[in-house]
Fold:
Amino acid sequence: MELRPILSAMLRNKTGAILVGLQIALTLAVVANAVFIIMQRVEKIGRPPGIDSDNLFFVQSYGFGPNYDHRDTIRRDLDLIRSLPGVVSASSINGIPLSGGGSATNLGASAVREKQTINTNYYTVDEHGIESLGVKLLEGRNFTEQEVQYNPDASGPQTTPFVIITKDTARALFGDEPAIGKTIWGGADQTSVVVGIMDNMLGAWVGWDKLTQVMLMPRIQAGPLARYVVRAEPGRRDALMAEVEQKLSGSNPHRAINYVRSHTQIKERSYRADSRMVAFLSVLIGLMISVTALGIVGLASFHVNVRRKQIGTRRAVGARRVDIIRYFMVENWLLTTGGIVAGSVLAFAFGQWLSSAYSLPRLPPSYVVGGVIVLWVLGQLAAFLPARRAAAIPPAVATRTV
Amino acid sequence: MLAYYFRIALKSLRRNPMLTALMIGSIAVGVGVCITTLTVYRLMSGNPVAHRNDVLYAVTLDSWDPNSPWRDEHPERPPPELTYRDAETLYRSDIPDRKVMMRKAAFVVEAPPKSGVAPFLVEGRTTTKDFFAMFDVPFQYGAGWDQAADDTSQMVVVLSKKTNDKAFGGANSVGQTVRLDGHDFKVVGVLGEWAPTPKFYDMNNGQFDEIEELYVPYGIGTQFEMQSAGNTNCWRDQQINNFQDFLNSDCVWIQFWVELRDSSKRAAFQDFIDNFVREQKSLGRYERPLNNHLQQPDEWLKVNEAVQDDNRVLVGLSFMFLAVCLLNMIGLLLAKFLGAAPLVGLRRALGASKSAIFRQHLVEVGVIGLGGGLLGIALAALGLFGVRHVYENYNELTRLDFTMVLAAIGIAVLSGLLAGFYPTWRVCRVQPAAHLKTQ
Structure:
């Protein structure tokens, strides 16, 4: 292979080669890290929520004035919602999973609570809570209607006698021991017995590292605020949302229906910062690859134009078309490879800096390897068009002057 | 002469339209991306009360759990809010020139029956009177309330422009009544357009949220036993059985700011809060080391991480992208200029001086930079249009302003010249003789 003449031609134009190499190196460094960030965010957004997210919607009502009866309002609202065709189940609930807002409390596995507590995101529901959220009960039992207490004072977290906790909460509290029937301590002198273990569901705050530590308590909170979770049959959610909003609004003059919102919409809002980052970075990567590819095409085309006479001469003395194409492809391959070597180092250095400055995970080598392959292919593709044009230069060019 | 160079430049640019388009496009996307991320960054890192930065202070006390700090990753930071009890005590100090304690609360608004507007829920703020003066809040109609209204928790209300538009159709509603949670409140003021971004005065409840939709005296929240509509953070095991228990608890949920117009007052108030905490320590509270802060808005915004890491990473990546675009352009320019070396040789032989060649090529580079800058502004506008779709709340603010347009042109021309300098220098060194031989 004619590496030597290609190399010496490149050395004659060192600056040009270095510029392309640097460009490829920077592209590799940015693309590898950006793709890595994107993948982390995509993974985060795609975590299974553990609840029947697609078919859920939430309603918030806010009572006012002296004639507002909170307990009665909740009872009548839920009766009305449950009677609508297409509703699988509905429950009162104090917060909304993955909404960014919620309540948490510290729980301990023993009365000696110093430093042995875990933070748990809790939801107060009624006996329909499990079914309405669509979370799977793994062990134990659901709450009964009698266990659901109406809490006359809404201030402050207090535990209920019975609770259902997620798998991860049980593991955090009791390790591998069975948790059913065990007592947990929350707040001073307040104990609860675990009656059920449910599959993991995601709690309120998308950025929280203990997102699967969730607990359900059988309670209806007092206060002006009432929230409901409604689970619809597949495909009927949107129609039901409109129907529920309209029926509830007209049913009680002492409150305002604050919103009726699908869980899809709530979830999307919470992940917006992440989806935004994905969108931004994708555009950036797209532009960067296009600019680099177009740059290679432009530069190669230009070189072809400048070397028309030289190419013609080579053809005249017996070089085949494929030799000309190969010349340009190999030249490009050498440039790209030089850039890639520098780029790999740069990518890891950049990844290292990102992970230390912004406490992100370290860049795995696979992303750099992926980037290397993409740039090799891209470089060859970008060089192919000009190379083919070069091959089309007739040998007769050699005999012409200018 | 400049006009002549300009004509040559255009002619030269027209000779390789593909290459020219690539170079201008390259600068344009680089500038467009940078200006887009910079605009967002600037928006998030802005200080909406910069003009009062010297006198305003956010007050924080470290009342948190002796066993674990407020933020594990930043153990030096106290919680951003105070307990109800502590806020009440600090508010009694007469050292500050002005002071405000406040928190969020939700209200149902009933518009006058004749308006036909259904009752609606709004986010409100209960606050002491100095809120408006301290933060330089603009009024469309009327004004805030006075000390007497604070002292006796009078039912007076200041509406945001949005609420007034909704309930009163934007008319001057001062003197009218609105029903809030079933009680009649007298409107004393209506705010003008106000969108402090980030929402510096309450950084623990949505840093980029809109302002509250109405404002009532602080005491109203206590009198009506209204729960906080913002975050409430607690750490101590305390029996909370009623609202009074909650007020007495060590939960933090009250924002507290002071205005201190000179350094002696600042020192005096720092002493005051430190002494207060020492006194509390002797009563068994405040078990963490003494860690009380008076922070000016710019420091406050920094500590509370208003500029998210994401945005910083994006700005960094954008500039790396611009670097790639520039490298791209240098490569193309170099190839192009050196490709035209025979022509330069000819012109040199005909008597053009080196400096003339230099200036002529620099003009060409400048034209490319300017073209890239203008196109870059268009691309940035397009980029921000996209940004408005993925951000909410501050649509109006993510627009290109005059500074950013200037910055765009500046970055483009500067980077164009920077990128063009080396190729231009190279082409000036062309030896006329070397290129004349083959002609």
About this structure: Residues 8 and 14 of chain A are 10 Å apart (CA to CA). The radius of gyration of chain A is 32 Å.
